Amino acid sequence: MTESSAAAAPETNDTPIEVPPVIAELVQALDDKKTEDIKVLAVGEQSSITDFLILGTGMAGPHLRALRVEMEKILDTAHAPIAGVDFGEDSGWIVFDAYQVMIHLFLPEQRDIYQLEKLWGDAAELDVSAMIKPRENLGAPVDQ
């Protein structure tokens, strides 16, 4: 992958982490859909099954369902193979396994219970803000 096609490339132990463009696309979509507390962890050194984890919090069941649909669209457009999607109707947790990336979307209660950030505490956390394009001002400023 060329440097121009990669998203933010933070360094860990002097080795840059190449981030596939689809990771930035997924993060941007989650941000656009008002997902809370988005985190991207580079777990390739710790995991034999995936390179990146994307974590995010939705505010309600319908919000999680909308996020699931958006993630499927982006992965399909990127021609990223999806090994599986696991979600229970009322589980409050959706997991996408797209081989190179696993996406975990939670309701706040489940995020607090499972605390995947702590489980993967030795993984490098990537700078999500570098993957998000600023939103354009959609309206004129309001005088107060």
In short:
The chain is of the alpha+beta class. Helix content is 28%, strand content 24%. It has helices at 21-32, 61-77, 108-114, 116-119; strands at residues 11-12, 15-16, 36-42, 52-57, 84-87, 93-98, 101-106, 124-125.
Descriptive report:
This protein has about 140 residues and is an alpha+beta fold. The protein has a domain at about 40-120: Beta Polymerase, domain 2, CATH 3.30.460. The protein is about 30% helix and about 25% strand. It has four helices and eight strands. It has helices spanning about 20-30, 60-75, 110-115, 115-120, and strands at about 10, 15, 35-40, 50-55, 85, 95-100, 100-105, 125. The strands form two sheets. Strands 5-6-7-4-3-8 form a six-stranded mixed sheet. A two-stranded antiparallel sheet has the order 1-2. Strand 6 (about 95-100) and strand 7 (about 100-105) form a beta hairpin. Helix 1 runs antiparallel to helix 2 (about 60-75). It is globular, with a radius of gyration of 16 Å.
Which structural category do the helix and sheet elements fall into? alpha+beta
CATH topology of the domain at 39-122: Beta Polymerase, domain 2
Compute the number of strand runs. Answer: 8
What is the level-2 CATH architecture name of the domain at 39-122? 2-Layer Sandwich
The gross shape turns out to be: globular
Unreliable segments (pLDDT under 50, ≥5 consecutive)? 1-12
Helix residue percentage? 25-40%
**Given the structure, what is the number of helices?**
4
The span between the termini is: 49 Å
Spatial sequence of strands, sheet with the most strands: 5-6-7-4-3-8
Strand content: 15-25%
